[in-house]
Amino acid sequence: MARFLGGGVARLARLAPAGARFGIHLCLGDMITEPLASMPDNQSGVLLANAIAKAWPAGRSLEFVHAPFAAAQKGAPAPTRRGTRR
Predict the structure, then answer these.
(1) CA 6, CA 2: separation in Å to the nearest integer?
(2) Pair 47, 2: CB distance under 8 Å
(3) Fewer CB atoms near the end CB (10 Å): N or C, the chain?
(4) Residue environment code for 50-67, b if the CB has 16+ CB neighbours within 10 A, otherwise e
(5) CA 4, CA 7: separation in Å to the nearest integer?
(6) Where are the beta strands (DSSP E) in the chain?
(7) H or E element that contains 3
(8) CA atoms within 13 A on the CB side of 5
């Protein structure tokens, strides 16, 4: 699935006018800061980002890939010390 989606994103870059600049934002939210999904980790995000990079067309500048890890309504978990329980 990552290869399929990554190829589709790269295709958009390939079809864009020469000199266009690109950044990829992989998120799980929407415009009103409500997460639409959640993931236990970001393995699928990493797979998708890698697939996009692998399929990215030569001569097109991919300036950033942004993959936010926290949902706006739910803060990041509190840090724990190794070997302790929450």
Answers:
(1) 6
(2) yes
(3) C
(4) ebbeebbeeebebeebee
(5) 5
(6) 21-25, 61-66
(7) helix 2-15
(8) 11
Q: Rounded to an integer, what distance in angstroms lies between the CA atom of residue 69 and that of residue 76? A: 8
Global confidence as pTM:
0.71
Q: How does DSSP classify residue 65? A: E
Tokens at 24, concatenated: 């990829």
CA distance 49 to 57: 14
Overall residue count recorded for the chain in this entry: 86
Tokens describing residue 76: 């990041």
What would the two tokens of residue 15 be? 């079809």
59-86: pLDDT as tens digits: 899 999 988 765 556 665 666 676 555 5
* Contact by Cβ (8 Å): 36, 17: no
Residue that has been written with the tokens 């639409």 in this structure: 36
